[in-house]
Design brief:
CATH architecture of the largest domain: Orthogonal Bundle
Oligomer: single chain
Number of domains: 2
Order of helices and strands: HHHHHHHHHH
Radius of gyration: 19 Å
Largest sheet: none
Shape: elongated
Helix content: over 70%
Length: 210
């Protein structure tokens, strides 16, 4: 499934966005000031206001890129795995390997950052508008993956594809709750739960002995 591509940013604009993204790893958007971004990026004030309507526009562009990259990461790999083979076991194995790596690489901070962006959008209509199309594109891609599994005879045609798409996204976003607790789940147990979930929808009939 193809979506309308967002315009590619000018290299100077992208450098400003990348600087904000880097700063957002450790600082909330409320505490990021234009002066700090300019000093850190080595770019003067003129280009900032040439490429962005105002500083909030720059911040929201950075937040949108963070959200999009995070949201598409998993589903992109699922689609790749399903496309890679007509054999369900092989497709599952390919995706399983990605999940194992991803659960090591992804941090609780990254999850909290995505939740923070969603929270910000609740009170900032302009950011909410930016995220709304991204979110719908992500949901459509999950639905597309389920339809691919259906076409291969791997999934249950009685299940609503959009409901599956929302369930899968909420499961991964919800992992932030574990990061907020003083007691954390074991990584291997989390992987078992993930695979039971994927085997229930996308790889129905695959052995669950993993």
């Amino acid at each position: 499934m193809e979506f309308a591509e967002e315009p590619t940013l000018h290299p100077t604009a992208q450098k400003l966005v990348d600087t904000v993204i880097e700063m957002l790893q450790t600082t909330s958007y409320n505490n990021i000031k234009s002066e700090n971004v300019l000093v850190r990026s080595g770019i003067t004030r003129g280009p900032l206001y040439h490429h962005f309507a105002d500083f909030d526009d720059l911040i929201e562009t950075a937040q949108s890129q963070i959200y999009k990259n995070f949201a598409f990461d998993l589903i992109t790999q699922l689609v790749v795995a399903i496309n890679a083979s007509e054999d369900m076991e092989k497709a599952r194995a390919k995706f399983y390997a990605f999940i194992e790596d991803r659960t090591v690489e992804i941090s609780d901070n990254s999850l909290r950052q995505r939740i923070g962006i969603i929270h910000s959008a609740a009170s900032r209509p302009s950011l909410r508008q930016r995220l709304s199309q991204i979110q719908e594109d992500v949901t459509q891609e999950w639905m597309h993956a389920y339809e691919m599994a259906l076409a291969r005879g791997w999934a249950d045609p009685k299940i609503d594809t959009r409901s599956v798409a929302i369930l899968m996204q909420s499961t991964f976003t919800g992992r932030v709750l574990d990061g907020m607790s003083n007691v954390h789940m074991e990584r291997e147990e989390w992987i078992k739960v993930l695979w039971r979930l994927f085997d229930s929808f996308f790889f129905v009939g695959v052995s669950t002995n993993k």
